[in-house]
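Hi Q.,

Before the meeting this afternoon, I wanted you to have the 4'-deoxy-4'-aminopyridoxal-5'-phosphate prediction in hand. No need to reply - just skim if you have a minute. The sequence and ligand are here:
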Amino acid sequence: MVIRYIKYLANLRSIDNNNPQKFICFIVFMSANILRQHFPFFFGPNSQSSVYLDSAATSQKLQSVIAVTQQYYQERAVNVHRSSHQLAASVTEQFEQCRKTIQHFIGAKSHKEIVWTKGATESINLVASGLAKNHFKAGDSILVSALEHHANIVPWQHVAKDLGLQLRVMPVDAMGVLQLEESLQMINSTTALVAVAHVSNALGNINPIAEILSKAKQMGALTLIDGTQAVSHLNVNVQQLDCDFYVFSGHKMFGPTGIGVLYGKYQLLEQLPPYQLGGEMIEKVSFAETTFQAPPLKFEAGTPNIAGVLGIGVASEFIQNNKNTMMQIEETLYQHLLSVLSGIPQVKLWGDKVNSICVQSFTIPGVSHYDLAVLLDKRNIAVRVGHHCAMPLMHELGLDGTVRVSLATYNTKSEINTLGAALIECISLLTEPVTQVETNHSVDKVEQTKLLPIAQSIQQAKTWDQTYRQLMLAGKELARLAEQYKTEVTAVHGCESQVWVHCLLENDRLVLQGDSPSKIVRGLLAVIFEALSGKTSHQVLVFNLAEYLESLHLGRHLSQSRGNGLSAVVDKIMAYCQHPSATQES
Ligand code: PMP
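Predicted structure with the ligand bound:
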């Protein structure tokens, strides 16, 4: 990388100074490479093989973030706010300085408005549980958008249920873009709180929060903005936005996991009751009475994530110092991604392509997102598929999931090209007819004779490609489950793809049927069904899935989450065998 960078520097003279556009493109491209240097992931053991396009799940970490956290643990590991020795005082100062850094990062009025949490989820829960105690009253409603991450739905749903309030949902159009007019009309005098994402994690849309905030203010509603996907891509100024609360997580902005921020207007933080109780957040304790510190310490019970705070501080400084360059790079990358994806005829793009950060969700009609993810993963391309913790949004769009490519400033056009080429290859693999596979027959004869036909074909497969083709063949042979049986009762939860399993005991022998939009999952179902069909309940209950998959050499091809999905299938079958009448209709 460094050598490539030096080569570009050497070529600088060849830039056409009379063509400013070309020069700007060049500078942006150069900066892209310069910023990539700050992320050791791209120079470590995974650097050659991996194309990381999953930054919305978590971003890669800055060298400076790693250095400051390491330095803390290695050289400065003391507690903050408590001890009076010199090192403790110095680390406490560094820790509190980070609060000021975050204050300036998001344009807050005071550092006292910055509360450390363990992430956006905890920040939202803190506000929700506090407001539940002293803000809402009968007849109030809480307004969220259809685009929200579960973290900005479930706490509000819980509060609404507990207090008998209405949870209302601002709608999206058929592409998943927030319908502003309708949304604004929904904000009325009963609206006690509007909680909305600055940027959708599932689709990348930048929501029109300025308009929403202005209407909410006009109607006297409190506002919480989930900025988790925004802070590393957009300029954020909470005073200009005039939101009441703004939340985000360190790990999506090149910082550590386990650290997050709750910004709140100071008087509102003063009014909120404490979230957790214990050391550090108190002023005075006696058995008769306890008084609490003022915000933000009132919300920071116990020893905080000190290394995390130092890390998020450094990360926010990096973003602030490089924001303009980053935004230019990301725009260039996003436009390139759109052109590569649009060039593949089968790809259907979702969400807002104009007001968007560099995140794009897509589907391929007739191809399971799960199968695509498995094949891309085998090509070392990391994307995320599924509902992206936004199940209600997927439901609105009539989808069971999407493929999400999420870029960050360190990605390159060449990585996007690699994705494009891989997608074309995977789509053709997943749509062409599967044929019998030539396998290696040198498998131990004794082992072979014990195995059933599908299991045998899988065990004989030597490469992932052969295994995958055998799974596809087995899946093709598996009878489809009639639509009437695809119900909540037969649905298996915990898989990356939709799966249904229908069980029946006939004369104490198990009859299994199942289905999934994923060809690979259908293949895996065929493997399990072959092993368990015709068995007695007792035999099923002693079945060891992990051992079985291992004996077929399948374990190494299954990621932890795919493995978990299969465990969920077997758990469902076992639950049926334990209580046949209680768990499924016959
Ligand atoms: N909101 C949004 C928009 C997110 O993308 C995420 C993380 N995917 C969260 C909230 C929750 O963040 P965390 O898991 O870091 O608490």
